[in-house]
Write a structure and sequence with these properties.
The structure is a homodimer. Chain A is mostly helical and about 200 residues long. Chain A has 2 domains: about 100 residues, Winged helix-like DNA-binding domain superfamily/Winged helix DNA-binding domain (Arc Repressor Mutant, subunit A, Orthogonal Bundle); about 70 residues. Chain A has 8 helices and 3 strands; from the N terminus they run H-E-H-H-H-E-E-H-H-H-H. In chain A, a hairpin with a 7-residue loop joins strand 2 and strand 3. In chain A, helix 1 crosses helix 5. About 5% of the residues of chain A have low confidence. Chain A binds a DNA duplex (30 and 30 nucleotides) through helix 2 and helix 4.
Chain lengths: ~200, ~200
DNA sequence: CGGAAGCTAGTCAAGTTTGACTAGCGCTCG
DNA sequence: CGAGCGCTAGTCAAACTTGACTAGCTTCCG
């Protein structure tokens, strides 16, 4: 349910083996601190939690000669399962929110192209459905007859704001799908060396 | 810095006096649970924290005949200051994020019309500036020459996604400003009974 | 009438996030 | 050469969030 979880799990998976600081640097590189909350503390916490849940395993505690000790992690079988589960959900279900979607983007090329397109189309459908029900809410937002604070006018503004951003998202998604269908990017079924797939 | 803080502070202020459950109901009515995180626990925590910071004061602990005891709060002088500070910031500074902006919307009519328009125009400026620098980032996102994981292609997608949503936001903001300039809504300087202003 | 459901009002422990802090090492520059 | 800066790697307490739980009262419905 957390964007950090997916990001950290995926970052370790991509490297094959990684310690906390490497994950931290990778996430920084993909600007994850901007839109998700990946402060240092969260990353180390996530690593420990994932290890406790047997989704990651501790490989070694290296005595690095340069700076303090490092704990190296690797993804487990269960972790693989969880990773793809989270990835699918984050991509297809708009209710998981934009943070989750952004967290999923780094790993899209680990999927097969057709698969990803399917997931994105599913997201588009659900998003459009959400937009429709928001439109209904806008139409039904009437001023209350009683004097109580009631449902005030600004609620309508919130809904239109919400609607405008979803519409923009849908257009962007449809454009992305079109580009993917036209062959953009290298996916897992195009080449095993697609970005994001673990080495060796 | 937190949307809950602004929402709870503003909700109490709007009522004049309120206990936790009333705040909870108001926020629910404003659909605040949707986009901000206003689970019951957070509200009661926020109330206690705001009271500890002397932004709210405890009025009475009423023995209500209907259900358990209630603690009634009222905003203090300092709270008034903090409220308008947070409100201004949430409206004018896009870096505080959409959650903060949504949390501010319920209270816009407590401002003077010209003041709000000024704040929103400021937001538009900053948002546009952000879009420009994002555009630069997109242009500079080149594939890395070295073999390292590097800055991968999806980062570009994230930026375009980001760009599309902020563009939608700007258009919406400009539309809102136009409507405000045309006289929509009743503001604090139109009538003291504008929505969101405390009673008596 | 009785009891199931629902509302009012709030508490609490467990989990998560924050961001300031430690501490060693290398590099640079006057 | 040594003082200061910045990087590597991570810890930690304090703050915040979550959502399940309590407990009394009212209302509905057969």
């Amino acid at each position: 349910m957390s964007a950090t979880r997916l990001l950290v799990l995926g970052a370790v998976r991509t490297r094959g083996e990684a310690h906390g600081y490497q994950v931290r640097q990778d996430l920084l590189l993909w600007a994850a601190d901007q839109w998700a909350n990946v402060k240092p503390g969260s990353i180390y916490h996530a690593l420990k939690k994932l290890a406790a849940d047997h989704l990651l395993e501790e490989v070694t505690t290296q005595e690095s000669e340069l700076g303090p000790d490092r704990v190296v992690y690797r993804i487990t079988q269960q972790g693989e399962g969880e990773f793809f589960f989270l990835l699918n959900k984050a991509l297809s279900d708009p209710e998981t929110g934009p943070a989750m979607f952004n967290a999923a983007l780094p790993f899209i090329t680990t999927l097969d192209r057709g698969n990803l397109i399917f997931l994105l189309k599913s997201r588009i459908q659900h998003t459009k459905a959400g937009a429709d029900s928001t439109r209904l809410l806008i139409d039904n937002t009437v001023a209350p007859e009683n004097g109580q604070p009631g449902k005030p006018p600004h609620v309508r503004e919130m809904f239109t704001y919400w609607l405008v951003t979803i519409q923009a998202e849908v257009r962007w998604l449809e454009d992305l799908v079109a580009r993917l269908e036209a062959g953009e990017y290298v996916f897992a079924d195009d080449s095993p060396a697609a970005f994001g797939n673990p080495p060796h």
